[in-house]
Amino acid sequence: MSGETILALAMTEPGHGSDLGRIETRAVLKNGEYVINGSKIFISNGQLAELFIVAVRTSSPERPHDGISLLLVPSDSPGFARGRNLEKIGLHAQDTSEIFFDDCRVPAENLLGEENRGFAHMMQNLQQERLFLALGAVAHASGALKHTLDYVKSRKAFGQELSRFQHIRFELAELATKIQVTQSFIDDLIPRHMQGEELTREVSMAKYWASDVEFEVCDRCLQLFGGYGYMSEYPISRYFLDARVQRIYGGTNEIMKELIARQLGI
Fold first, then answer.
1. Lower CB count within 10 Å: N or C terminus of the chain?
2. Which residue in 33, 129, 171, 216 is the catalytic one?
């Protein structure tokens, strides 16, 4: 792997996010080519990617999940078009786009994996993606905490540094504890995942828990900045805004809880 090509994964559609089994972007095999029609939304790297892994419907079986395939679509393919670079409240350093397929044609050999087995292929990789998101969430929370610790040591109110007030000391102690406990859980999962262990329940727990902790940490840290925390010139405001999406992408936290419940047999 040379790292010379920018990739994007295109699964989500305007009408189908968490319910990937019902995607409508369709690909029909004709004369050795797949002809693709449909659209995708919220695609990370959509403005920059040179190659897209696109989830498409290639058949309509009784079980919708069984009719999905993955196709490799170069950005210069005829019939492919990039849409808007969507304006987000956070994560401004990363582009997020719409993409469109209007009789877009790619060779049949661009099929990734088995035809109609795309949903299973995607599910196999979601464990790693969600573990990665959990790790990113706890790192983000740690950064927000460090930034806040520096602030409360220098900011003065009522004649003393904020770090001298018991309420603030207790607040930061609680947040540091939550971060450490979350980090310990993730540290346990990483080697188990690397060894090939099936960890659907544990990784779902880690993704939802870590992103909840991340948002709580950023919210409570921003509060300690007072009015300054609400100003865009202060980095803590960016920590807060960037944290919000973690509970949405990669599978919403509500979906994570549903997966956990299924693993519990209920």
1. N
2. 129
Q: If we measure between CA atoms, which residue out of 167, 150, 143 comes closest to residue 238?
A: 143
Q: What is the DSSP letter of 62?
A: S
Assess whether pLDDT exceeds 80 at residue 17. no
Q: How many CB atoms lie within 10 A of CB 11?
A: 20
Give the CA angle between residues 164, 166, 170 to the nearest 5°: 115
Domain 120-263 has CATH 1.10.1270.20: no
Longest dimension (CA), the chain: 79
**H or E, element range at 30:** strand 26-30
Q: Which residues contact 45 (CB under 8 A, 6 or more apart)?
A: 6, 7, 8, 94, 95
Tokens matching residue 61: 């079986």
Does 144 score more than 80 pLDDT? yes
Given pLDDT bands bounded at 50, 70 and 90, which one contains residue 1? low
Could you give the CA distance from residue 243 to residue 209 in angstroms, rounded to a whole number?
Answer: 13
Same fold, 7-116 and 120-263: no
Domain boundaries, the chain: 7-116, 120-263
Evaluate if pTM is beyond 0.70.
yes
Q: Give the Cα separation of 99 and 73 in Å (integer).
A: 11
Q: How does DSSP assign 96-132, residue by residue? A: EEEEEEEEEEEEGGGEESSTT-HHHHHHHHHHHHHHH
Domain 7-116 CATH assignment equals 3.40.50.300: no
Q: Is 202 a catalytic residue?
A: no
Q: Calculate the CA dihedral of residues 138, 210, 206, 17 and round it to 10 degrees.
A: -110
Taking the C-alpha atoms of residue 205 and residue 158, their distance in angstroms, rounded to an integer, is 42
Q: Residue 257 is encoded by which pair of tokens?
A: 């809880």
